[in-house]
Amino acid sequence: MASDHEKSEDPILSYRDDLRAFREERARHRRLVSFVIKITVSVLAAAFLLTTVLFCIDIAGDGSSPDNNGDNVGGRDRTPPVIRLREGDAIYMYVGENALLKGAVTVTDESGYTLDVLQDGLNKDKPGTYTITYVAKDTAGNTSTLDVKVIVTKQEYAYSALMSLVERKAAELGITSGMSKQEQVFAVYKYVNSPDKSAAAANIVFVDESNIPSVDRNNWETDWVEEAARTLQSGEGDCYSYYSVSKAFFEYLGIENRGIRRNDSQSEMSGTHFWSMVNIGTTENPRWYYYDGTRLAGKFPDETNNGCLRTYEELMGYVPNNGQSGFYVFDPSAFPKTETVKIAR
């Protein structure tokens, strides 16, 4: 019969077996953890590599190719809408007018778009120059903006209203269609410049500023209508005012004319200056002369300050009272040639 010791398990051997099993289990656990870590690192590395490649492709295709100019790479629309003003470089409206501002611009885009007009600063009930912003956004999320000037004036400053005002003034001055164009121009100059009157008594008293509120000289070729109307009512203004009123009369009388602005970058004079060219002949046989209705302080070659119907030679001979040069700096090749025969005054 076996003893009790032979039947029972050796405690030392049992401990060793348990220890060996524990070590094997821990080793398996470590291998599993290591495997999981390796898989995770590999997946992350692959994802990073793929992201980098796609990013590089995206950058390379974003405008660097001369074939696509960066537009619609991979089918993606990258071109923002193009906003353009339909006419001119500003929007003109009358006080209280409910102008359709969206209709003043065109929008070009490859897909659908929305157009908003930011006009918080616009006061349609007060004359002045304002700025509004157009914002166009297409379905791809591309956005573009355009700032546009809005010039608000009173109804009385419409071209037709100005012509009615000039018509009454011309009748008052005795300027008729029976006069020659030369006589008409001299009559206009006599009213606008007031050569026989003192500075304080002149029909248009010289003040070194125009009448249009917040006048923008970039719009001088269109703002003359409002400037002429304001000057005829206020009786004061600067060289732009003299130019505008004279032009209003020339337009009414059917006298062909061209406005000129001094090239200030080539002049020693401060500020700017405006004057005209007028054709006292016919379309078939033109006779162009320079005309400046401003009350000038300098002298022409004949020692007078009369700027009515001057030849190019006489214009270039003008000397301002301060002796500076460049009062009449401009590009004459951009305008008709004047007659060389001097007009008697």
Describe the fold and architecture.
This protein is α+β, with helices and mostly antiparallel strands and 345 residues long. The protein folds into three domains: 4-60; 78-153, Immunoglobulins (Immunoglobulin-like, Sandwich), CATH 2.60.40.10; 155-334, C8orf32 fold (Roll). The protein is built from seven helices and eleven strands. The strands form four sheets. The protein has a four-stranded mixed sheet with strand order 2-6-5-4, with no helix packed on it. The longest helix is centred in the N-terminal third of the chain and has 50 residues, at 11-60. Residues 1-8 and 59-70 have low confidence and may be disordered.
Quick gist of this model?
The protein has helices at 4-7, 11-60, 159-173, 181-193, 220-234, 239-253, 312-316, and strands spanning 82-85, 90-94, 105-108, 113-118, 128-138, 143-153, 205-206, 236-237, 257-261, 274-279, 288-291. With 345 residues, the chain is α+β, with helices and mostly antiparallel strands. It has 3 domains: 4-60; 78-153, Immunoglobulins (Immunoglobulin-like, Sandwich), CATH 2.60.40; 155-334, C8orf32 fold (Roll).
